[in-house]
Specification:
By secondary structure, the protein is mostly helical. It has helices spanning 2-22, 30-33, 55-63, 67-84, 93-101, 106-122, 126-142, 147-161, 167-187, 190-206, 210-226, 230-246, 250-267, 270-286, 290-307, 310-327, 330-347, 350-366, 370-387, 393-407, 413-427, 430-446, 452-469, 472-488, 492-509, 512-525; strands at 36-39, 49-52. Strands 1-2 form a two-stranded antiparallel ribbon.
């Protein structure tokens, strides 16, 4: 702290000297200003704030100036800092935004608030970034109507959407971006219009509406392609891939995300490249292309470690864990989910934590610990309620249904499966709908008063959907599940046929965990 104070005092002396050079009115107030202590705040921004040594001094010094003189003084301090730190203005953006906001130069206040927000966002201080972006948006809206003021409003609204933290943030961002849309159209600013359309699509995606997300992403991409702007096109391409993945169009999603990985690589956007690689890996794994899927997922984790971005790191480990789950490499999946959860806890990323707890809960149940799996899944459900999100909530309910099956709580499963299927239907998520149908079939066959006919209908629907979307790993697991149901009905020949098919698929895809169990069951069938 002593060293920080020395740095602060040196900064203060230089600043006061420069103020006296840029304005003739300030020297008469130097005696008052010399009571200032310039404290070096080291957490995020150097030389971030000035505080008076004594509260009484602050009150006397500040209130003794007329409002006009105070505004002039704030502007003089701002200009002095700009002159002193012309090549390092971003470091001083916070204090510059503060002083210019209290001067007549509101244009500069907005510019520096945006700059301060950008710096905070790069340091993963999203809450702080939101504060600065909100100041910029409020300031821009208070200005007389002009093209520049409208551009600032658009930019601030879009930057706010990129650092959303809560459901309330997302709801407000929706309003802000909707208000930005007619501004971009009035300006005939095609680049900003494309960005607005992208964020409208992204907000639809977060609200579990992939169909509208695709519509907006397509409009954004159309503008970017017309402008031949690869950097502008990269984000809507990414969103298209994400939405296709959510809609269970895995072949299309994997192709789009592979394209996006290359786009982001060309643009030098390693964080977005890592995320795109994770999505590509997940899409490929869902159709059984594990070699390519693992390669993409590993690439995402490697990039995240290189750039030391905790948000990207949490996402990359989550996606790799998902790839390993599809393959049945549950121990490896658990390690990744645990790592992603720790990172999410550390960064306060509750949305990531909600998803990871669902995924880890499933993995725990599959590896013989359904009690812990249930606990994690119920925690995930509570987080979803607090966040006010339905995004992939069907996963949580479907995985919880499978946990309850493993625990023998068969009566609780049908209602949970129906809710999961309803949510999956709303989101267009065919994969989850199919897995929920499988859980329903197994529950109906195990009730005290079993309903084999409805169970058969449910498992048949699961198989139909999985065949339609080409989700081969989960299809093979469903064949194995069907074999168990057929065996309980005494249809041993058909059961053996189904299980033999599952064994063949597991072997072809290299799903060792599932293969071992299916082969063991087949040996039991054969006596």
């Amino acid at each position: 702290m002593q060293a920080a104070a020395v740095i602060g005092r040196e900064f203060g002396i230089r600043l006061l000297t420069r103020i006296s050079e840029v304005t003739a009115e300030v020297p008469q107030h130097l005696d008052t200003l010399k009571h200032l202590e310039f404290i070096h705040e080291t957490r995020f921004f150097p030389e971030r704030e000035f505080i008076f040594k004594h509260a009484f001094t602050q009150d006397v010094a500040y209130q003794s100036h007329l409002a006009l003189r105070r505004r002039e003084l704030h502007e003089s301090i701002g200009r002095a800092i700009e002159d002193l730190y012309g090549d390092r203005l971003e470091e001083q953006a916070t204090i510059l935004a503060y002083h210019y906001a209290r001067s007549d130069r509101q244009d500069k206040a907005i510019e520096y608030a945006l700059l301060a927000g950008d710096r905070a966002a790069r340091l993963y201080a999203n809450a702080e970034a939101r504060t600065y972006y909100e100041e910029a948006l409020s300031g821009a809206r208070a200005l007389p109507t002009s093209d520049e003021a409208q551009r600032w409003q658009i930019d601030a609204a879009l930057k706010l959407a990129a650092v959303a933290l809560t459901r309330q943030d997302i709801e407000q961002d929706w309003i802000n971006v909707e208000r930005a849309r007619p501004l971009a159209e009035a300006l005939r600013d095609e680049r900003r219009r494309a960005q607005v359309l992208y964020w409208l699509g992204r907000l639809h995606y977060v609200k579990a509406d992939p169909t509208n997300a695709i519509a907006y992403a397509g409009q954004s991409l159309e503008i970017a392609d017309r402008l031949a702007d690869d950097a502008l096109a990269a984000l809507p391409v990414n969103l298209l891939g994400r939405a296709c993945l959510l809609l269970s169009d895995y072949a299309q999603a994997s192709q789009i995300m592979a394209r996006n990985v290359e786009q982001m690589r060309r643009l030098g956007r390693k964080s977005e490249e890592a995320t795109a690689a994770g999505f590509a890996g997940d899409a490929l794994a869902r159709i059984g292309e594990f070699e390519r899927g693992v390669s993409y997922a590993d690439h995402g984790v490697k990039l995240a470690r290189e750039i030391q971005d905790p948000f990207t790191e949490g996402a990359a480990h989550q996606y790799r864990g998902q790839v390993q789950s599809h393959k049945g490499d549950w121990a490896e999946a658990l390690r990744d989910f645990e790592h992603a959860g720790r990172v999410a806890e550390h960064t306060g990323d509750r949305f990531r934590l909600y998803i990871v707890k669902s995924l880890e809960g499933r993995a725990r149940s599959m590896t013989g610990d359904p009690a812990r799996g249930r606990m994690l899944l119920e925690e995930s459900g509570l987080l979803a309620e607090r966040l006010g999100t339905k995004f992939v909530l069907s996963w949580q309910k479907t995985f919880l249904a499978h946990c309850l099956l493993a625990l023998g709580h068969h009566d609780a499963v049908p209602g949970l499966c129906q809710e999961a299927m309803r949510l999956a239907e709303e989101a267009g998520d065919k994969w989850t709908k199919a897995v929920a149908h499988r859980a329903l079939a197994e529950a109906l066959s195990r009730l005290d008063a079993p309903d084999p006919e409805k169970a058969e209908d449910a498992i048949a629907e699961a198989i139909r959907i999985l065949e339609e979307i080409g989700a081969r790993p989960e299809l093979a697991r469903t064949y194995a599940s069907h074999a168990r149901l057929l065996q309980t009905r005494g249809a041993s020949e058909l059961a053996q046929e189904r299980l033999t098919h599952a064994v063949s698929m597991f072997r072809a895809m290299g799903m060792a965990w599932d293969l071992e169990r299916a082969e063991h069951a087949l040996r039991d069938f054969r006596g």
